[in-house]
């Protein structure tokens, strides 16, 4: 049998460390995340610690921010990566991976970490707060940070990859980001990304939304119960007066743009397509829609809404926006 060809370009030179790590965890991964954040800072790596939330919410936020920084898909060593932790490390990787250009890998050993970097060019590390000790997690993180793309790893028996495999890995950098795109338009060029490939956008298709009687311009359709999720739309210029719910809710904008004022926190958020926002239970918030807008929203329990102001008051307050004293959160 012929010996595999070894690439002369293979290298074990450590890659440059990331310029920044965006980190987050749920309650089961919080302690381990804090340990790893401290370790990263001891290496003089900038860390943006998003704190603790539900595994799907925090992982989605990390994924969104890493995706936003993923401007050059062909780069094997992007400057911004992510770190997520939950009980198993699996849930956070699933939700981080829902964003384009994010390659999250659950790593329970240093071998997993080396393989994920060498083969998959992983840019988000997911770890298990229940199965991994702090010392082991630091070893996993160090391996993940220091392993270059295409370098020898346990999967290659610690030998350089052959030319054929190395070529495959090079091609994967441009091919992986377009996996799952929907070429429903026959005129669309193969390999280009179609917005209709979004799984959430597909939920909207062929669904008739029911008018929201208490808020003019709004319509909603429940798509799942317990936990409950829905597709909501509002016409351009619509306003939601200040109100609150007994549940917290996550939302992702699918179309259009809106501004949310959180009166409880004196903060405001400008949201466009792809943006995510979590509003805690009881927080009073007001909304203005700048164009026809659709969004996906999820919450626990039964739907309720309690208004804290009249529509005319809401419109008057929005008209005084320049002097509202709210901090714009970006």
Tell me about this structure.
This protein is α/β, with parallel strands linked by helices and about 325 residues long. Helix content is about 25%, strand content about 25%. The protein contains eight helices and 17 strands. A six-stranded antiparallel beta sheet has the order 6-7-8-15-10-13. A six-stranded mixed beta sheet has the order 16-9-14-11-12-17. Helix 4 links the parallel strand 4 and strand 5. Helix 1 crosses helix 5, helix 2 crosses helix 3 and helix 4 packs parallel to helix 5. The N terminus is likely disordered.
User: Strand order within the widest sheet?
Assistant: 6-7-8-15-10-13
Strand tally is 17
User: How many helices?
Assistant: 8
Strand content: 25-35%
| Radius of gyration, taken over Cα atoms and rounded to an integer in Å | 23 Å
Note the gap between the termini.
Answer: 59 Å
Return the average pLDDT rounded to an integer.
83
Largest sheet: 6 strands, antiparallel
Structural class: alpha/beta
Q: What letter string, H or E per element, gives the SSE order? A: EHEHEHEHEHHHEEEEEEEEEEEHE
Q: Report the principal-axis shape.
A: elongated
Q: Name the poorly predicted regions.
A: 1-11, 72-77, 182-196
Q: Level of helix content?
A: 25-40%
